[in-house]
Amino acid sequence: MSELWTLIKYLFFGIFQGFTEPIPISSSGHLMIVRHFMEMDDVGISFEGFVNFGSLIAVLIIYRKDLYRLSVNSLQYVIQRGEENRGDFRFVLLLVVATVPAGMIGVLFKDVIEGIFSEDIRMIGTTLIVTGFALWIIRNLRGKKQDGDLTLKDALIVGFAQAVALMPGISRSGATIVAAMLLGMKQDTALRFSFLLYIPVSMGTMIFSVTDLMEDPHFESLVIPYIFAFIGSIVASYFALLWFMDIMRKGNLKYFALYCLVVGILVLLFL
After folding, report:
1. Of 175, 198, 186, which Cα lies nearest the Cα of 62?
2. How far apart are CA 148 and CA 7, in angstroms?
3. pTM for the whole structure
C-alpha cells in the first residue's frame, strides 16, 4: 500500500510541476508549497530537474515547426548568405544573447537563491504577489513588434527578466512575457520568444541535473515513480501550454494575476 501511495504521490508531483511550468504562476514556488504540505522533503533538485525535462519535451513538440524553420534557415544563411533567411538567423542570435544572463546568474548564485527561499516559505508569498502585480500591469497591452523587429536591447532585457525568475515564486514564463510585452512585442511574438528561450535554459538545467540524479540516494528505489512523474510532466505541460496560448490570444492574463495575488496573500497569512 505504501508503494502505491508513493507512486501516486510522485505522479501527482510530476503532473503538478508539468501543469504549472508553462503558465505564469511559478512552478518552483508552487512546488515548494506542495512539498511543504505533502512532506516531500526527500525530493531534491535532481528530481525537479528530471520532471522539468518532461516540460521541455512538451515545448519542443509544440514549437517543433518553429524550431525546424529556424534551424534550417539559419544553417542556410550561414552557408549561402541568402538574405531571405537573415531574419531567422538573427532571431536565433537574439535567443542566444537572451540566454546569457540567466545562465551566468544561475551558475553563480542559484544555490544561494534556493537556500534563502528554502529557509522561509513565506518569501514565496511575497514573490507570488510581485508576479501577480506584474501580470496585472500588462493584462491589456497589445504590442506591435514582430520577430523581425526585435533588437539586441530587447533580447538582453528579456534575458535579465528570465534571470530574475530564478527566485522561486517569480514565474519564468510570466517574467519573460511581462518584459516582452512592456517592450512592445505582439502576444504571439512574446510567447514564441519566451518559450524558445526556455529551451536552452532547460537543457542546461537538465545537463547539470544528470550528475545529481545519478548520485541521488533515492533514485534507484524510486525509479518507477520517477518515470511516472516524468510522463505526467510531459502530458500536463503539453496541455497547459496550449491552454496558456489560448488565454494569451484572448487577453485573459488578469486571471493569472489575481490567482498569484490571492495565493501569495494566503501564504503570507497562514504559512
Report:
1. 198
2. 47
3. 0.91
